[in-house]
Design a protein that fits this description.
Oligomer: single chain
Largest sheet: 8 strands, mixed
Radius of gyration: 26 Å
Distance between the termini: 55 Å
Number of domains: 2
Length: about 400
């Protein structure tokens, strides 16, 4: 489904889901002024969006806020697990350490900072997974204001039927979808920081994400309604970027894992295919799409599954035995199309294939293997200095 269609369908479904509840909240407002589901819904949307942008900071801040707002010890005891001091205290402490690392990032050498960035990537994944447990109790409180009071409702002619449990159950998958979409886009910033060689770019990306998170908190403090609307704008933008961010997430994590674990030293290439990412958009299939490169009669095809689980699709590549080549890069190999002396990168192979270029070429039926990029420059320099082995 195209992003615009998905966004339209999502917003329409959300409006259809919330329309009866908003009308009920209006009726309930006439019964009990000053209380209602709208405030709960606005608060939940802002909190879920904030937690998705920065799971550890979001859970810690929301938990501490709920703890200090609790009126009594019995009320604090009933708070969910993320609102207990044993969780939000260490969570905020770890966030402070990450902030200190980012503040010193412009003066710390990249070689010392990058391992910490790698650790933060995996921390963000772990905290993002843990934070899903906080989304359910937040979503389950949205329609609490609709619980009927038999005395007040009977006086106004309402039947005392409680639909709030059903509406809360319906709200949970919507909240989880919103959370997953925003988290994927937010996590892509960690991936960009990991692959960026410039500390100033890292700081700018972190500052941008912090500013977005601060805007969610600030707009919610100004007005519940305005905060919810701004959060929905962020959710809408994240829906449009979800596909791009998901492909970047898969690409960055696989490359980082291969490099950090020296996967190439214990890897044996397949005999009839190779794992690859598209290096550019080809016939409508976006760049960084993950799949398998396989030889076919007269050329090669790229097999992939959209979102990794949808129906398998096949892309015919504009390659033949006369213009196909494997490029030996400094970090990872490439599949090239060589025409008129120019080389075009069509697919990127993960770093696990580095050093196995000849085996990959034999498995795919590609005759040519050549150096590219920094590897080509390095081998040229070695030959110039007479350091290339015979």
């Amino acid at each position: 489904m195209k992003p615009r269609r998905f966004l339209t369908s999502f917003l329409l479904a959300l409006c259809l889901l919330l329309a009866p509840s908003l009308s009920a909240a209006t009726a309930e407002k006439s019964v009990a002024p000053g209380s209602g589901m709208v405030n709960e819904l606005s608060s939940a949307i802002s909190q879920i969006t904030g937690i998705a942008i920065s799971p550890l900071l979001g859970m810690g801040a929301v938990g501490a806020y709920q703890w200090f707002n609790a009126k009594s010890d019995s009320a604090k005891a009933k708070l969910p697990w993320f609102a207990q001091p044993w969780f939000w205290g260490p969570a905020l402490l770890l966030v402070g350490l990450c902030f200190a690392k980012d503040s010193l990032g412009t003066v710390v050498p990249t070689a010392l900072k990058k391992p910490l960035d790698v650790a933060e990537v995996f921390e963000n994944k772990l905290s993002g997974l843990v934070a899903t447990g906080a989304i359910v109790p937040l979503a389950m409180t949205v329609f609490k204001a609709l619980e009927p009071s038999s005395a007040s409702l009977s006086d106004h002619g309402f039947a005392a039927i409680d639909f709030s449990p059903v509406l809360n159950i319906l709200m949970v998958p919507v909240a989880l979808c919103v959370y997953a979409c925003v988290w994927v886009v937010s996590h892509s910033i960690n991936i960009l920081i990991l692959i960026s060689p410039f500390a100033t770019v890292d700081a700018a990306l972190k500052s941008f994400r912090t500013a977005i998170l601060a805007s969610v908190v600030g707009s919610h403090w100004l007005s519940d309604f305005f905060g919810a609307m701004w959060a929905m704008v962020i959710v809408g933008v994240c829906l449009l970027l979800a596909g791009w961010a998901f492909r970047l997430l898969i690409f960055g994590n696989l490359f980082a894992w291969d490099i950090l674990t020296f996967r190439r030293t214990r890897f044996t290439p397949e005999t009839d295919s190779a794992t690859a990412f598209l290096a550019r958009k080809i016939e409508g299939v976006p760049a960084r799409t993950f799949g398998k490169l396989r030889p076919e009669a007269g050329g090669w095809v790229f097999e992939y599954r959209p979102w990794l689980f949808l129906a398998r699709r096949t892309l015919k590549l504009d390659l033949n035995h006369g213009n196909a080549a494997i490029g030996k890069g400094l970090l990872h190999p490439e599949v090239l199309r060589t025409d008129s002396g120019d080389s075009v990168d069509l697919l990127d192979l993960p770093p696990r294939y580095r050093g196995h270029e000849q085996a990959v070429a034999a498995a795919l039926g590609i005759a040519s293997v050549e150096d590219v990029g920094l590897m080509a420059a390095w081998n040229w320099l070695r030959g110039l200095l007479g350091l290339r082995p015979a």
